[in-house]
Amino acid sequence: MVQRMTTKRVLMGPGPSDVPTEVLAALSRPTIGHLDPVFLRELDETQEMLRQLFGTRNTLTLPISATGSAGMEACFVNLLEPGDHALICRNGVFGGRMAEVARRCGAEVTLVEAPWGQAIDPDEVAEAAKSRSFKVLALVHAETSTGVLQDLAPFRGIADSCGALLIVDAVTSLGGVPVEVDRMGIDAVYSGTQKCLSCPPGLSPVSFSERARELVAKRKTPVQSWYLDLSLLGKYFGGDRVYHHTAPVNMIFALHAALRLALDEGLERRYARHREQAQALYGGLQQLGLDLPVEASVRLPPLTLVRIPEGVDDAAVRAKLLRDYNLEIGGGLGDFKGKAWRIGLMGASATPRHVSLCLEALGHSLES
Ligand SMILES: *Cc1c(COP(=O)(O)O)cnc(C)c1O
């Protein structure tokens, strides 16, 4: 029992990442009321810091009280009504999940696909956008299932060409690579706390443009999810602080602490740290003779895909890393199941110490 309570891992999988002691300390602060003025001041500050990380002035920027997938669901349930058309890009697990969520909202989904491990081709999306008008165009910025970073720049123009709002999954990019919501013209974006923000899992920061907010206000049908209805959430998180649900007070303390650490570090410096540690990891893996299937120009610094060499037992290596080094890395998903590992360098886990531990542990495990 004691053993279980004190197990400390080094988290280099696809999330959660290592949580700094300042953030753990914030979690264990005394719980206070969700309408207590002290808490509300911290909630205001948390929302303001989230705007800085998202690169937005959107009023409706808030932490949804659930994990990243709930943020995804919040974007789709609010912006789609039954019979609407959605144009969705899929090159991994999370684009696929978006399509599934959109279908469950009653939308007709048109998919633009790329092979796993490659970026979406914006020209193909532009072509699909000519076929009809769409209510939303959705894509994943940082595809955690493959380690591909998508350049968002072309997509505002494509969304405009078919009358769509632009939805972006920034779960693994926020805090690790620049997201730039306003500059990229993103209308709805969601993230998660346990990836590059290095906070435990449990909250999903989201942000909605004025245009998205207006669209929700003009809906013909009520949002089918009461819990995720933006117009209700906006009454609590938007200023009046009208009770909707009990905000998870301690998780918000933790997010506040995690955002403070990110801003104190400096965002540019933080993004550079992720890039530099990723470069060091790529070099070390290649020295071990390992192949990185994702082309260098679209690699996502916070998550690296590594091909498992012929004849190596995936599960045995990962079990050994966990047992002998307390080190967690991720297995492959979908097309890469059993064929690749996923190594995370997210937030507090993107340090030289993490890179060298991982290289040493992998080196030893592959020898034996
Ligand atoms: C982790 C992740 C999600 C889902 O977040 P959960 O917190 O697991 O619900 C969605 N999209 C991407 C890109 C992710 O990496």
Can you offer a commentary on this structure?
- The chain has 368 residues and is of the alpha/beta class.
- The chain contains 13 helices and 13 strands.
- It folds into 2 domains: 10-16 and 266-367, Aspartate Aminotransferase, domain 1 (Alpha-Beta Complex); 21-263, Type I PLP-dependent aspartate aminotransferase-like (Major domain) (Aspartate Aminotransferase, domain 2).
- The strands form 3 sheets. The protein has a 7-stranded mixed sheet with strand order 2-10-9-8-5-3-4, with helices on both faces.
- The radius of gyration is 21 Å and the shape is globular.
- Bound molecules: pyridoxal-5'-phosphate.
- The site of pyridoxal-5'-phosphate has 14 residues, from helix 4.
Provide a compact summary of the structure:
41% of the residues lie in helices and 15% in strands. With 368 residues, the protein is α/β, with parallel strands linked by helices.
Task: Give the tags.
13 helices; alpha/beta; single chain; binds pyridoxal-5'-phosphate; 2 domains; seven-stranded mixed beta sheet; Aspartate Aminotransferase, domain 2; four-stranded mixed beta sheet
SS-derived structural category: alpha/beta
Strand order of the largest sheet: 2-10-9-8-5-3-4
Radius of gyration over C-alpha positions, nearest whole angstrom? 21 Å
| Shape call | globular
| Associated small molecules | pyridoxal-5'-phosphate
Produce the secondary structure layout.
Blueprint: H1 2-6, E1 10-12, H2 21-27, H3 37-54, E2 60-64, H4 68-79, E3 85-90, H5 93-104, E4 108-113, H6 122-129, E5 136-140, E6 142-143, E7 148-149, H7 155-161, E8 165-169, E9 188-190, E10 204-208, H8 210-217, H9 230-237, H10 249-265, H11 267-287, E11 303-307, H12 314-325, E12 327-331, E13 340-344, H13 352-367
Parallel strand pairs: 1-12, 3-4, 3-5, 5-8, 8-9
Antiparallel strand pairs: 2-10, 6-7, 9-10, 11-13, 12-13
Helix pairs in contact: 2-10, 3-10, 6-7, 11-13, 12-13
